[in-house]
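Weekly puzzle thread! Below is a chain. First person to post its structure in token form gets bragging rights.
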Amino acid sequence: MGEGPETVSPDAAPDRPNILLIVVDDMGFSDLGSFGGEIATPNLDRLALEGIRFTNFHAASTCSPSRSMLLTGVDSHLAGLGNMLEELAPNQTGQPGYEGFLNERVVSLPTLLQDAGYRTYMTGKWHLGSGVGKGAAYRGFERSFVLDTGGASHFGDMRPAYAPSPDVKANYSQDGVKLDALPGDFDYSTEYYVDQMIRYLSDDSEPEQPFFGYLSFTAPHWPLQAPDDAIARQAGRYDSGYDAIADARLERLKEMGIVPADARRSARSPKERPWDELTTAQQKTEMRAMEIYAAMINEVDRHTGRLIDYLEESGKLDNTVIIFLSDNGPEGHDLDETWSMDLFPDIRKTIDSTHDFSYEAMGRPGSYVLYGPNWANAGSPAFRLHKAFPTEGGTRVAAFVRLPSLVGEPELVDEFVFIKDITPTILEIADVRHPGNEYQGRPIEPMTGQSFLPILRGESSAARDRVTGMELFGKRVIRRGEWKLVHMPAPYGNDDWQLFNIDEDPGESNDVSLDHPETVAALKAMWEEYSKANNVIIPDWVSGY
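Winning reply:
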């Protein structure tokens, strides 16, 4: 193929829409009000209710593999994130597709948009490699302020979410230059990422060109932290406990038509406990953890509202496609599961020695809070399990698209959509052609994602019959239509393939593999084809995450 994408002439620039891609980190399916939640999210709800809400949108089960597909349209096992860098197994290390960063065998979405005349800006979490040639500044973003790694304190203290030594600072960079200190006005991550995006848009010297903005919040990724006033606004809201919240959310999801009317709350994971079995002290801690989490979602909404206000006041909103999604399901692990002393002793010692775990400190600078499996279940009450699992709770995420000139009447869409469909959709919206197998003289992987622009336009789609595979940490899935074949270790699975009819059983509670052996055989064959085509290497070591 050619050297790059087909571009559009500068004279056509005003007709091309701006594109704002908003990604949140580890959000529950039902956290937004427009998806059944009780958290105040009026700004995001306004956008969602003016556009298309997807009820069957799927990501990978963790962040960096999801983001590699999000920005390339290529499977993560080919794009460099066949496994998370932090979790690479010995037999994966050094293998193609397992570099731990976005490799050179893919071309990124911002690169193609920049080639086509778009101004490209990013603020927030990158997690696709750091340093020369790997960071956001080298993969198509002309301006960027990013956290290169997976997580960090949300305040300005530069504490990493995980590091082998107390001397290590969180890995931030600006326009490709690593920062030794954060700017003096970096008070809270969510606020600053929006401030910086507005600055980039305001300082633009060529406003007649369309822009691509990638606003990649680190919220609500752990450690759960929020400003004191934001937490105070949630006081008492979660005193009823996670079981009551899960039940209430499920009823609202049914009333809104987002899940079937006969949907049931998913089964508890082996790590969950009924609310009424907790001690008073345990309930108190759980309440505060969810108050902090809700504050983080509320802050995402509040500051996104400032960006929307800016776009509206500057006359850009009506010509801006807004795409919103979470990178995976809610985080349901606890500290011991995430950073085991046996497996990650240096990281765990650093976390334990540099953070305040007292109740009084929860949510404040220097604290380290996760909200665990019970609240994760409440976050996605109709779906089983959470982040790091290929079940619906780990991969089905809240997502919406808003642009009146492209979309007809606002509606719910239950077509299956996958995260690697984002890049081909945006390219089609921007009228930019992907170069196929070669870019600037180097071979690249062609996109395997599919544009869902026809779905946005209300046209028919073949999405239901598509075959989609995923694998991470050895947990694997292959799906087609209503059938989903899942392979997970005990106690979450049976170390063998299990079959679920997702249309009838979105909670994946009833393994029907013995009733449909021919379907199991057909899907197994599809898995082998997917695995071979995408260079899937089942890890010979897993941390248990």
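Puzzle host: Confirmed. Bonus trivia for everyone else. The chain has one domain: 10-465.
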